Amino acid sequence: MKKFIEILNQKNIKYKVENDVIRVLDNLCFYQPCLKSLPDNLIIKGNLDISETKIRNLPDNLIVYGNLNLSGTEISILPDNLVVHGELNASYTKIITLPEKLIIGGALDLSFSYVQSLPESLTINGNLSLQNTYILELPETLAVAGDLDISSTRITRLPEKFTIKGSLNLGRTDITKLPENLKVDGSLILASSKIKKFPKDVQVKADLDLCYTEIRKLPDNLTVNGNLDLSGTQIKKLPANLRVNGCLALRGCSTINQLLKNFKATCISLDLSCNKIKKVPENLKIQSSLDLNSCKIKKFPAELTINENLNLEDAKIKKFPAKLTVGGQLSIEQLSIERTSIKQLPKNLSVGGELNLSGTKIKKISSHFNIANGINLACTPVKKLPSNFTEIKNLCINVTKISRLPDNLHVWENLVLCGSKIKKLPKNLQVGKKLLLNYTKIKKLPENLKLEEGIDLRKTQIRYLPENLELKWLSLDLKKIKNIAYRKNCTAKRKTIFAAYLNGEYKIFQNKSLIGNLKEYERFVNQRFLDPQAGKLKQAARDCVEELQKKIRIN
Asked: Could you tell me if 243 and 268 are in contact, meaning their C-beta atoms sit under 8 angstroms apart?
């Protein structure tokens, strides 16, 4: 108990000790594996996280009013009187059995544990995850208030009377039959299972995933309220009056030509990727998106309108329709060595979302294109951006020959220049989230950059950081930046710490993440580390600030 109390004091965690009972009034998280045991009669008013620690046993009379996280520990037995008012995460543990009177107020995660059986009267008021466990059967009266995941288990049958209020995942199991009148309030996932027949009386409120099953026929008048995935199946004919209120996925179907013949299904989106079809069927009516990734498509109808996204990545297109309208994103990215022969975009192209041309042979971007939502020109022969190009959501020109950015460029989210020919950034450049400059010859950052995320300066010629730079992370070559001070390999966890003078304060970064000023960094360390590691990290930060102060005075 003495060592435990010392840790609480060091972390400034509020607690009370009465009659040998320790009441911890805050969340208690151990990020270091040095603690090997917890004291008996422990009550945690918040969450208790001992994941990845060396603790092998839980104390008797343990009560946790929040969540209990044991993931990745060597714990093999739970106390008979354990009470968890929130969620219990025992994934990746060596627990074999659960106490018969285990009390859990929320979800239970036993995935990838050694658990072999469940208590007969088990009731879960959240999700129950049993993925990759050794369980052979479920309790006949099992009640789960959320999702049930038994994928990749040895379970061969479902109880007739069990209840579930969320999604049911039976993927990669040997279950061959579903219970009569099964009602699933969420999604039903049967992917790669042994089920061969889909019952007429099954009710599914969300997605239905049948990919890579041996199911060959679906009932007529089937309505799926979410997505329907039939990828890799041997179904030769879609049921009459099929309605899918999400995406109908037919990826990699050997019977694709038979499925598309007289296609009358109603769906919001259609995924035909990884098929050998050579043309888009004339009778397709797509309300939203169409995915033709890695298809043999070479020809389109004269006119094509897609209300949302059109994916043509690695498709063998030779010519676009004269009039192509895409309401969302259009991607013709080429990842394979054998690229599409398309060298120009149609004059009447209209794209409402991002345009992805990565890896294509397209050489020029016309100024009349509306690409305000973003364009990806990575690894293309494009040499110049349109002159009217000033505001855009995302711009990616890495590994291109583009050598100049427009003046007053405003990128709302991400600007990716890595490996490009850009040598100078516009003086009034604005970037909202990320700026990636690695492997360029850029020598200077503009003033007044304010990013929600960060900048990658590795392998650039930048040597100084602007003092008014605002960001949350920074990747750089420590030895090349002149106005920082750093320490490497701090503690056994090999943390890298560096200090930079930004916006009137000495800011501390750990690895590449900005933590805050010196006081904020010390508070951060106290919450996550114990002595002597905590002391070494705080001293390294102080040394960095002291060294940087001397550098600034000299310059």
From this structure: no
